[in-house]
Specification:
Radius of gyration: 29 Å
CATH architecture of the largest domain: Alpha-Beta Barrel
Strand order of the largest sheet: 1-2-3-4-5-6-7-8
Helix content: 25-40%
Largest sheet: 8 strands, parallel, barrel
Mean pLDDT: 88
Shape: elongated
Oligomer: single chain
Strand content: 15-25%
Low-confidence stretches: none
CATH superfamily of the largest domain: Aldolase class I
Distance between the termini: 56 Å
Number of domains: 3
CATH class of the largest domain: Alpha Beta
Number of strands: 16
Structural class: alpha/beta
Length: 489
């Protein structure tokens, strides 16, 4: 059975506190959602604002394969705005719990039913596809809920949706609720919220109970604790439910996850299933050994399935098999005794609470392998002039192969000026700075700054780090350390 996906990242997902997407950003997300095979895209809520309507129009004008919907209340004014946006259909949301009917709308069940039926009629008279979503369905009287659905279908509704608006379902109660509705003659959808961390579990139970469509958001973003996670649901259906499938291109899941994280600013927790940075990372020696022999020993799926790559993390739990694999990636061949010594040195460093980076590993390996080298470039002096009305200027004195060299440079800021003062020298030719990252190790204005950079020369990429209380010194030292490594290699 094929399960349809309605993605509501652009509507329910955008209701995440602090998230507000531009029309261009919404289009980029919608384009990617269509590209990976999403069946229905809820592009927004047309009643919200003129800017929102322009965003929706920009999406509906593209001729996507996905059906494009707008959120709508059961009011003609909302529906008219949806029509102005040229959407294919509406997600017509009608409250069905007594709590919402009595306390929020201040109306009766009978009037609510008439309101729903009239709204469906108005939509169908204007050629819209209608998915009728019962808001707070999980706290609604089941007989009244069924009555709302049956009436909507009689008036032409194409699909119906059960909304667990405050996330109170459990996997058992979700299965039971959808089982009671699985004789409905149109497709039944499931829309869950994650207030108790059960949105994905409840969604999967809904499918087992008879739901043929699910509502999701990328990375599970949304109000409060968020919505059903798209990536977790889709991959679970693919890997755990052999009788069900989706139209999603699973190998592009990581790409769309990262896109949404960047554009919304809602970044992904490292241990998040499927798309978290640690989802396919291994440090434990036992795990690394098993993974190298057969990835199925400690991975329920290959990282390539979802567009990821496996990585072995350097740390005190690492075993020699994972360590040797990482050393080979760095181009280092060691014997058994050397491997054991490197492993012991890493554990000693990690026991002090230090994160062991590739640079640290390189230094440790160099010491064990007794690779002695003399840096070609040494920093002797660094002077910075910067101020409110002064273009940041840096002068450097370095020693290159025992020759003293003086140079100066300007930049947008003092760090930029200092790096520019170095980059214009011949020895730095053809070396590109491809990544620059800064962390404050301690608190306060006198915090130690950890600068980590990546440099590239032709097809060789190296990392280097500099740690100082002064960010400019740390940056320059990291840069020179990286260049020295490239020149040695």
């Amino acid at each position: 059975m094929n399960i349809k996906i309605l993605d509501t990242t652009l509507r329910d997902g955008e209701q995440t506190p602090g998230v507000s997407l531009t029309a261009k950003e919404k289009f980029r997300i919608a384009n990617k959602l269509d590209e990976i095979g999403i069946d229905y895209i809820e592009a927004g809520s047309a009643i919200t604002s003129e800017g929102e309507r322009e965003s929706i129009k920009g999406i509906t004008s593209q001729g996507f394969n996905a059906e494009i919907l707008s959120f709508s209340r059961p009011l003609n004014v909302d529906i008219d705005y949806c029509l102005d946006c040229d959407v294919d259909g509406v997600n017509l949301v009608v409250p069905t719990s007594d709590l919402h009917i009595n306390d929020k709308l201040k109306t009766t069940r009978e009037d609510l039913l008439d309101l729903s039926n009239n709204a469906v009629d108005y939509c169908k008279d204007h050629g819209l596809i209608v998915e009728l979503s019962a808001e707070d369905a999980s706290r609604s009287d089941i007989d009244f809920l069924r009555n709302v659905y049956v009436n909507a279908i009689d008036h032409g509704a194409d699909r119906i949706c059960v909304c667990d608006t405050v996330g109170i379902l459990t996997p058992d109660s979700s299965f039971e609720l959808f089982s009671k509705l699985n004789d409905i003659e149109v497709p039944v959808a499931c829309h869950c919220h994650n207030d108790f961390g059960l949105a994905v579990a409840n969604t999967l139970s809904a499918i087992k109970g008879g739901a043929s469509e699910i509502h999701t958001t990328i990375n599970g973003i949304g109000e409060r604790a968020g919505n059903t996670s798209f990536e977790e649901s889709v991959v679970s259906i693919d890997r755990l439910f052999s009788q069900f499938s989706t139209n999603v291109k699973i190998n592009e899941i990581y790409d769309v996850s990262k896109l949404v994280a960047r554009l919304t600013g809602v970044y992904i927790q490292p241990n998040k299933a499927i798309v978290g940075e640690n989802a396919f990372a291994h440090e434990s020696g036992i795990h690394s050994d098993g993974i190298i022999k057969n990835s199925a020993t400690y991975e329920p799926m290959t990282p390539e399935l979802v567009g990821r790559k496996r990585k072995f993390v350097i740390g005190k739990h690492m075993g020699t098999h994972g360590l040797n694999s990482r050393l080979k990636e760095l181009g280092l061949d060691v014997n058994e005794d050397q491997l054991q010594q490197i492993c012991c040195d890493i554990k000693e460093l990690a026991d002090k609470g230090k994160t062991v980076t590739d640079v640290d590993l390189q230094v440790i390996a160099d010491n064990v392998l007794e690779i002695n080298h003399e840096d070609r470039i040494k920093l002797d002096e660094l002077t910075i002039v910067s101020g409110n009305k002064v273009m940041p200027t840096a002068s450097v004195k370095i020693t290159v192969d025992e020759d003293e060299i003086l140079n100066a440079g300007v930049g947008l800021g003092p760090v930029d000026a200092a790096i520019n003062a170095l980059k214009t020298l011949d020895i730095f030719n053809d070396i590109d700075l491809i990544e620059y990252h800064v962390d404050a190790i301690t608190g306060g204005t006198d915090a130690f700054i950890d600068v980590i950079i990546k440099l590239q020369k032709e097809d060789k990429v190296v990392s280097a780090r500099g740690t100082e209380a002064d960010i400019i010194n740390a940056s320059v030292k990291a840069y020179i350390a990286g260049v020295n490594r490239l020149l040695r290699d």
